[in-house]
């Protein structure tokens, strides 16, 4: 690994917790170059909902490349883009009675967020955006301005302005009614709150510590935005594409966001792709007003469309994710209850789950113990105090059992019971 340490920047992070060189990946497993298997409960930070080298998506990609299909096309019309847009309409938007235009903002989730923030300000003529405590929306300057983590924000090197944080659901442990502070500031002409263009929210905060907003809280937020003429942006970069069960993480709340940010698993295979979905009346862009060199990666269009056909033509994956997610949640709850003196808390929804410990040191030790036993999972939360699980949605029952067994043993090895 000396070449990595010699040439790669100190900014690297995941490799520090998993100090092996990986070579192959199939389904729910990564393999080190010496052949050692690791069950992957990380899944590319949620970018591999359908597993590594999914055979259905791989074949579609190989077929496309072998026939010399277009790879790079900026925003030109291509057969691959047409297929993706039509499949998105047929499999996702139409059945859910959602009407959105599609912006191709660039290759990553931060690109999708930046496009949404930029468009919200253009549409409303207002500068301020409301975000939430412990939010994470990306590492570019606009996305950082609506991110809560102080370490990540400090990396900007300049003041991050035009955004105001509000308490996320259960931030005060239910001591106050939902949106008491937010709505009071909106209604009080003396509050000093700049009139917001938009609110940006994650229905489950992944990097923020697997904080799952309640269904009623999300409905209340949507209602508040409608009453105050504030655009609602749902960042579904990590929690979309089935991570919580339904394709969009906001579906259970029955809300209709003005914009939706998608990336990570929207490409299906792990290839870079991001989409910003916007209500048609918000499509006020001038041609070329928002663009990027890599907003038209056609192989990602191919695997994205194939993933929608393969996994969203019926509700089988959604049912499986809900059922296995409940099973994972119940097991984590049992583990947490085994250590009442250690204040362990089970958190999450669907296939976004976590165990919160009293410190980042403990959570880090649990993840290290899991790695030693052949399981990949990372920490999250403001102090890295949550051991986070983001397995592929295609995880088998046997793999669920294997992973939960390793987690149980790892917690036991750290907490000493």
From TrEMBL:
<dbReference type="GO" id="GO:0017000">
    <property type="term" value="P:antibiotic biosynthetic process"/>
</dbReference>
<keyword id="KW-0032">Aminotransferase</keyword>
<keyword id="KW-0808">Transferase</keyword>
<dbReference type="InterPro" id="IPR005814">
    <property type="entry name" value="Aminotrans_3"/>
</dbReference>
<dbReference type="Pfam" id="PF00202">
    <property type="entry name" value="Aminotran_3"/>
</dbReference>
<dbReference type="InterPro" id="IPR012773">
    <property type="entry name" value="Ectoine_EctB"/>
</dbReference>
<dbReference type="InterPro" id="IPR049704">
    <property type="entry name" value="Aminotrans_3_PPA_site"/>
</dbReference>
<comment type="similarity">
    <text>Belongs to the class-III pyridoxal-phosphate-dependent aminotransferase family.</text>
</comment>
<dbReference type="InterPro" id="IPR015421">
    <property type="entry name" value="PyrdxlP-dep_Trfase_major"/>
</dbReference>
<comment type="pathway">
    <text>Amine and polyamine biosynthesis; ectoine biosynthesis; L-ectoine from L-aspartate 4-semialdehyde: step 1/3.</text>
</comment>
<dbReference type="GO" id="GO:0045303">
    <property type="term" value="F:diaminobutyrate-2-oxoglutarate transaminase activity"/>
</dbReference>
<keyword id="KW-0045">Antibiotic biosynthesis</keyword>
<dbReference type="InterPro" id="IPR015422">
    <property type="entry name" value="PyrdxlP-dep_Trfase_small"/>
</dbReference>
<dbReference type="GO" id="GO:0019491">
    <property type="term" value="P:ectoine biosynthetic process"/>
</dbReference>
<dbReference type="GO" id="GO:0030170">
    <property type="term" value="F:pyridoxal phosphate binding"/>
</dbReference>
<dbReference type="InterPro" id="IPR015424">
    <property type="entry name" value="PyrdxlP-dep_Trfase"/>
</dbReference>
<dbReference type="InterPro" id="IPR004637">
    <property type="entry name" value="Dat"/>
</dbReference>
<dbReference type="GO" id="GO:0047307">
    <property type="term" value="F:diaminobutyrate-pyruvate transaminase activity"/>
</dbReference>
<protein>
    <recommendedName>
        <fullName>Diaminobutyrate--2-oxoglutarate transaminase</fullName>
        <ecNumber>2.6.1.76</ecNumber>
    </recommendedName>
</protein>
<keyword id="KW-0663">Pyridoxal phosphate</keyword>
């Amino acid at each position: 690994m000396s070449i990595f340490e010699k040439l790669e920047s100190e900014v690297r992070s995941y490799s520090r917790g998993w100090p092996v060189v990986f070579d192959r990946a199939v389904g729910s497993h990564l393999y080190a170059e010496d052949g050692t298997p690791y069950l992957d409960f990380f899944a590319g930070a949620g970018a591999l909902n359908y597993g590594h080298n999914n055979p259905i998506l791989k074949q579609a990609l190989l077929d496309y490349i072998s026939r010399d299909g277009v790879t790079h096309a900026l925003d030109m019309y291509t057969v691959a883009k047409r297929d993706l847009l039509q499949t998105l309409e047929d499999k996702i938007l139409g059945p859910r009675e959602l009407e959105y235009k599609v912006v191709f903002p660039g290759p990553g989730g931060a690109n999708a967020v930046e496009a949404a923030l930029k468009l919200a300000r253009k549409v409303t003529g207002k500068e301020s955006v409301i975000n939430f405590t412990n939010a994470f929306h990306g590492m570019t300057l606009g996305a950082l301005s609506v991110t809560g983590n102080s370490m990540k924000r400090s990396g900007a090197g300049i003041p991050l302005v035009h955004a105001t944080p509000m308490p996320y659901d259960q931030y005060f442990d239910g001591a106050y009614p939902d949106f008491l502070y937010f709505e009071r500031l909106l209604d009080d002409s003396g509050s000093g709150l700049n009139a917001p263009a938009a609110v940006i929210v994650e229905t489950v905060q992944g990097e923020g510590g697997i904080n799952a907003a309640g269904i009623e809280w999300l409905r209340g937020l949507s209602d508040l935005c409608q009453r105050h003429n504030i655009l609602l942006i749902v960042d579904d970069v990590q929690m979309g594409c089935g991570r919580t069960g339904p394709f969009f993480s906001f579906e259970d709340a029955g809300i209709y966001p003005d914009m939706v940010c998608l990336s990570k698993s929207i490409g299906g295979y792990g290839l870079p792709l991001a989409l910003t979905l916007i209500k048609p009346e918000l499509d006020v862009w001038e041609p070329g007003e928002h663009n990027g060199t890599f907003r038209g990666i056609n192989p990602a269009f191919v695997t994205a469309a194939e993933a929608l056909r393969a996994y969203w033509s019926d509700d089988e994956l959604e049912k499986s994710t809900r059922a296995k997610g409940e099973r994972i949640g119940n097991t984590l709850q049992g583990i947490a209850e085994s250590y009442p003196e250690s204040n362990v808390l089970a958190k999450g929804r669907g296939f976004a789950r976590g165990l919160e410990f009293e410190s980042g040191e403990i959570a880090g030790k649990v993840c290290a113990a899991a790695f030693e036993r052949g399981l990949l999972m990372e920490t999250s939360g403001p102090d890295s105090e949550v051991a986070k699980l983001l397995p592929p949605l295609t995880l088998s029952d046997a793999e669920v059992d294997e992973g939960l067994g390793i987690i149980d043993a790892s917690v036991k090895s750290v907490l000493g019971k």
